[in-house]
Specification:
Length: about 250
């Protein structure tokens, strides 16, 4: 599948005359809890020829391939990625930490990662992760929830917990995030991960009472923490300089 993804990315880049700077896995396979039927979520950042940004027509900010049951491929123009980084959107922070990299222009991930601390906003990111967790939890029926949805509660909730505890942007993968949870919760989640590796993503699972209590209490306390986070504002100058540098490479 890796070769198929790389070939697809190369074909897409050639068809649209763009250069792919970075491509990675962004879904459950990168987060550390895939199911047997998990698809591949390939994401990428690309840059266009300088003249594309000087045209009266808008430069293409999004490229994708037709979705299949196995493969979901889409990416952002570098300018869009940097605009979202300026807003402390969580997605660039996650992509740049992916443990599965399909393509990279030498030094790109390291250089863009250097920008992350400048634009990290804990308040915004906690709100983002809590929104994902609450939306997934709303699909619960009685004591049961789809195993995929359960992990769509757990990972963002633990990411928000990391931000509130450490005051820093969270790791992408689940295991480091889990280290801040009580030992009993770690054991429960580890058992669920093992079960998920053998179950289809739609399989229902009954949420243990202790885990449900932990998630409910954490959501409440994190919502309070987010409301007390300081707002921040910083110049776009470092991003502008970075964008111009990438265009000249």
């Amino acid at each position: 599948m890796r070769q198929q993804i790389t070939t697809s990315l190369q074909s897409l880049a050639a068809a649209h005359q763009v250069k792919i700077l970075f491509a990675c896995e962004s879904g459950s396979r990168a987060w550390g809890f895939p199911s047997p039927d998990s698809d591949y979520d390939a994401r990428f950042i690309y840059v266009q020829k300088p003249e594309a940004y000087l045209s009266l027509s808008d430069a293409k900010e999004h490229l994708s391939l037709p979705l299949t049951s196995e493969l979901d491929v889409c990416g952002w123009d570098l300018r869009k990625a940097l605009r979202l980084l300026y807003k402390s959107n969580c997605t660039p922070f996650e992509w740049l930490q992916s443990p599965v990299v399909y393509m990279e222009r030498e030094g790109f991930r390291e250089s863009m990662t250097d920008l992350l601390p400048l634009y990290f906003n804990g308040r915004r990111q906690i709100h983002h992760y809590l929104g994902i967790a609450q939306g997934a939890l709303a699909t619960m029926q009685g004591k049961q929830i789809g195993v995929k949805k359960l992990f769509y509660v757990l990972r963002p909730l633990l990411a928000a917990n990391w931000i509130a505890t450490k005051g820093a942007y969270p790791p992408m993968t689940l295991q480091p995030l889990l280290e801040l949870a009580p030992a009993s919760i770690q054991r429960i989640v580890d058992d669920l991960i093992r079960w998920k590796t053998e179950a289809v993503e739609s399989a229902p699972v009954e949420v243990p009472g202790e885990l449900m209590q932990f998630m409910t209490e954490r959501m409440r306390s994190l919502a309070e923490a987010a409301s007390s986070e300081n707002r921040m504002s910083i110049s776009t100058a470092p991003l502008d300089a970075y964008f111009q540098k990438m265009l000249s490479c």
